[in-house]
Design a protein that fits this description.
F-box domain-containing protein; globular; alpha/beta
């Protein structure tokens, strides 16, 4: 009888789908400029692809899916070197879908990235961290982008009109928006962001040129743009400034609920609920709660009672219909199954009596847009109940 020869078990015998799932746990490709090392030396996937022809072929499509560039001072030469490599090896540039730039100064690095779309034509996800300064026309050069996240950065108006035709998701946190004199229109409107559907805002500081006889400044996001949103996630601690200067919440449709985000605060912070309320007339209906890092607080806050803090927070907002709490708080003191722990159970019952749903969410679970899936599920349930009530 002829016996077939079987290969010993190993990576080469696994299906490509399983190999890709394993490789997904490795750090993404990372380009660190200014240290003199080649980009390949900063990416474990390069080492993996060199182990065999099979792994080389599997790694090739994902090798340059995400590029991270940490560009510090004096990195102009290193930037030019990496740009030259992306020009020489087009498969790297064409494979890039996600781009993260850190410590990027467009003022002196712009000549190296001016070709934007021609250099990285298929980028869909752009993250900018500590980039100063930056006008919208530069960001818009990645014309296929669907997601934009800007943190600790400065945005300026474009000298010409720009359109982000495909941008559906935007996140701005700790961002300075510097307006030009005599700008009467909104910084973002439907002509700039025709496809925007999901918006997340942290702290936004708007610097407006002082001028006399001003009859009122336009908000950063125009009312017509706000009307087309179907998901909004806001930081409760910055509620007053966001509503007054940035986002006209009165333009939101009833089908676009606002999910506010708040961190439970230990100690004296729980005695100042007014500091964490939206402006008058804005009824907070949906809330997502996180736990603080106690190491950041003083020693007298060591006896922090998260349940007491949560009780004070929900009591300050009589219009709440949903409050999400992290799973670790929900299961405090041995919560069994899907039910809350012994410390949280009385508060859950009190909230239910006033028509407030207190539910757990898993911070580690993948989100739908910027909000936990549990919030999206609650909104879907509400819509279904409304449709049944109309029948």
């Amino acid at each position: 009888m002829q016996q077939t020869c079987q290969l010993p078990p190993g990576l080469d015998t696994l299906p490509s789908e399983l190999i890709l799932a394993i490789l997904a746990h490795l750090p993404p490709p990372h380009i660190s400029l200014g240290n003199g090392s080649a980009p390949s030396q900063r990416n474990p996937l390069f080492a993996v692809q060199r182990t065999s022809k099979r792994l080389g072929a599997v790694c090739a499509p994902i090798l340059w899916d995400r590029l991270e560039m940490d560009i510090g001072p004096g990195a102009r030469g290193e930037t030019s070197r990496v740009v030259a490599q992306l020009r020489a090896y087009r498969e790297r540039a064409l494979g890039c879908r996600k781009l993260r730039l850190e410590s990027f100064d467009w003022a002196f690095l712009l000549p190296c990235v001016a070709e934007g779309e021609r250099l990285l034509p298929d980028v869909e996800d752009v993250e900018l961290y500590q980039t100063m300064p930056m006008s919208l026309d530069v960001v818009a050069r990645f014309r296929k982008q669907r997601s934009l996240a800007v943190d600790y950065s400065e945005l300026r108006p474009s000298p010409t009109h720009v359109t982000f035709a495909h941008l559906a998701r935007m996140s701005l946190a700790d961002v300075l928006i510097r307006l030009v004199p005599f700008q009467s229109s909104s910084f973002f409107d439907t002509s700039t962001l025709p496809s925007l559907r999901q918006l997340r805002l942290g702290f936004i500081y708007v610097e407006r040129p002082s001028r006399s006889g001003d009859d009122g400044d336009a908000p950063v996001f125009s009312p017509s743009l706000v009307e087309q949103l179907d998901q909004v996630h806001l930081e409760l601690s910055h509620a007053s400034s966001l509503c007054a200067d940035v986002l006209p919440l009165e333009a939101l449709t009833p089908d676009a609920p606002v999910l506010w985000h708040a961190a439970l605060a230990p100690g004296r912070a729980t005695t100042r609920p007014a500091a964490r309320r939206p402006p008058p007339g804005v009824h907070l209906a949906f809330l997502c709660v996180t736990l603080p890092r106690l190491s950041t607080f003083e020693e007298d806050d060591a006896e922090f009672d998260p349940v007491a803090s949560l009780r004070a927070l929900v009591a300050a907002h009589p219009y709440l219909r949903l409050a999400l709490v992290p799973l670790s708080l929900w299961q405090l003191e041995h919560g069994a199954g899907d039910g809350p722990g012994s410390e949280l159970a009385p508060l859950v019952a009190e909230c239910a009596a006033r028509g407030l749903a207190l539910r757990p969410y898993d911070p580690q679970r993948e989100r739908e847009g910027f909000v936990p899936r549990e919030a999206v599920q609650f909104w879907r349930e509400e819509k279904e109940q409304e449709e049944v009530g109309r029948m």
